[in-house]
């Protein structure tokens, strides 16, 4: 019995695979930018004086970090409609990724802020900077530089986790791969190509984030 790979049979399906890859890229870009912004806001709330918003944000962080991403996605897709909030598969996928990355990036960024010497806060106060100005101009940039490698890794993890959204019929890369496999029955070939796509996307994403880190933060490693 001989077994031969048949990648040529996948060629007619390249538009579906490319479309899924583009959707994954779009999700990743929006989730990365939005998730980091949410993380910065959360880190600011949790790094200041104890307050009700900070405590509530802490509850959100712990809830997300201690539950599976797929459960969070299903809750948004199937649970929220029970409260009268119905989202499309794309909106639900993006919201789930934003919420997930926002929680993890909050703690990563907060870790960088916590090791900031108190003298920097005091020096900024002496210079007459407001607390917001101190946070954005004095505290946040070096904090991001310190935790940048961990933040990059978390963004890539969220990108890879986007494959789960195929479970709610959102037509991203994994959904396209499953569809092609169901039509061709070439499981090995289809998922090998899909694996290589995710690998290439991860490497590209890491390099782009490294470039952005060097450009805006002076961070050279991740």
TrEMBL record:
Coiled coil residues, start to end: none
Matches recorded under Pfam families: BPD_transp_1
UniProt keyword annotation of Metal-binding present: no
PROSITE patterns: ABC_TM1
GO terms for biological process, alphabetical: amino acid transport
Transmembrane segments: 20-45, 84-104, 190-212
ABC transmembrane type-1 domain segment(s): 21-209
Major site of localization recorded for this protein: membrane
Keyword annotations from UniProtKB, A to Z: Amino-acid transport, Cell inner membrane, Cell membrane, Membrane, Transmembrane, Transmembrane helix, Transport
Taxonomic superkingdom: Bacteria
Subcellular localization, as worded in the UniProt entry: Cell inner membrane; Cell membrane
Membrane topology designation: Multi-pass membrane protein
GO molecular function, one term: transmembrane transporter activity
Gene Ontology cellular component terms for the protein in this record: ATP-binding cassette (ABC) transporter complex
Family, similarity comment: Belongs to the binding-protein-dependent transport system permease family. HisMQ subfamily.
Protein's recorded name: Amino acid ABC transporter permease
Species: Affinibrenneria salicis
